[in-house]
């Protein structure tokens, strides 16, 4: 059998370059697959705040969390670590998935407080909006109650951060609640809140947990998924697993706090050890004061030396002693 002719250098160079390109493509694809389908038991990514951090500005994520919420937008909150059984590769889809009906459990006091707080949020956030805008705001509050990134009570969600200058809803910190509510608008907001707490679901807004008005553009605007526009607000949900129905796992169990802005607790008083003097039990010997000797010519102090707040009785006018 005749030997094969030798391969020239040009063919070898072309073949080597092709192998490098194929190998590079395989490595890149493997890296993407590893990132999208990482081990659920592995530690979470370093930044899990619901929006992307700026690589050119280290610490931007924390600064955004600490920034005061502007009028017309909701605040964001740090996301907890993914649970062990969460599928990190589940990025969700673009469809709008309605929330489950909210079941209000708890005592009669819990029901009254939840209704009061939800009515307050609807009134100050969307009081002059159409029915769809008010229902969407109420749905966002209840979606947050079920999400582990927020408190598990209605009043806790509505007034979250009001004990600091970083409210989740700006009306709880900017003095808007000092205005007396208009009775007709309050009753309309109360009806919307009562329906939502009785299981009414505003399906078009989906699992949105954030919103903002036309007038502002929050820092998290492009990092979340918009679910719709209702009234004067754009509504958004989180990207990835935290925006899927499986993430809304918190159960409402009542224990509603007092309606209204939270007040910071005063620091506990510092108790310092006070030394106790060794006082003898025997009372000291009483020494009578010396008897004053009457002067032949009594000296009377001028009246302008008396304290102005003193009033001298008639029998003491010549003594120079003010009445204390």
Automatic annotation (TrEMBL):
Top-rank lineage group of the source organism: Bacteria
Gene3D superfamilies for this protein: Cell wall hydrolase SleB, domain 1 (1.10.10.2520)
Limits of the Cell wall hydrolase SleB domain: 128-235
Disordered: annotated span: 292-324
Biased composition (Basic and acidic residues): 301-324
Pfam families linked to this entry: Hydrolase_2
Listed name of the protein: Cell wall hydrolase SleB domain-containing protein
Organism: Sphingomonas hankookensis
């Amino acid at each position: 059998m005749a030997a094969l002719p030798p391969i020239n250098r040009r063919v070898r160079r072309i073949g080597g370059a092709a192998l490098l390109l194929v190998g590079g493509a395989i490595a890149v694809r493997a890296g993407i697959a590893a990132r999208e389908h990482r081990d659920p038991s592995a530690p979470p990514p370093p930044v899990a705040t619901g929006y992307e951090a700026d690589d050119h500005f280290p610490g931007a994520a924390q600064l955004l969390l600490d920034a005061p919420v502007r009028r017309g937008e909701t605040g964001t909150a740090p996301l907890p670590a993914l649970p062990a059984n969460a599928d990190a590769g589940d990025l969700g889809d673009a469809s709008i998935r309605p929330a489950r009906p909210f079941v209000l459990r708890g005592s009669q006091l819990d029901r009254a407080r939840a209704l009061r707080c939800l009515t307050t949020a609807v009134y100050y956030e969307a009081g002059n909006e159409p029915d769809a805008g008010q229902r969407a705001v109420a749905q966002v509050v209840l979606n947050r109650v079920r999400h582990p990134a927020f408190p598990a009570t209605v009043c806790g969600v509505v007034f979250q951060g009001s004990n600091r200058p970083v409210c989740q809803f700006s009306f709880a910190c900017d003095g808007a609640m000092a205005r007396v509510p208009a009775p007709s608008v309050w009753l309309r907001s109360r009806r919307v809140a009562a329906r939502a707490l009785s299981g009414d679901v505003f399906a078009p807004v989906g699992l949105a947990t954030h919103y903002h008005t036309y007038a502002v553009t929050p820092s998290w605007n492009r990092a979340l998924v918009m679910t719709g526009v209702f009234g004067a607000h754009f509504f958004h949900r989180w990207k990835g697993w935290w925006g899927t129905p499986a993430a809304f796992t918190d159960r409402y169990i009542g224990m509603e706090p007092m309606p209204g802005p939270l007040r910071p607790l005063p620091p506990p008083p510092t108790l310092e050890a006070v030394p106790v003097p060794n006082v003898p039990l025997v009372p000291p010997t009483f020494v009578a004061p010396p008897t004053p000797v009457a002067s032949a010519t009594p000296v009377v102090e001028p009246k302008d030396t008396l304290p102005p707040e003193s009033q001298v009785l008639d029998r003491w006018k010549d003594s120079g002693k003010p009445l204390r």
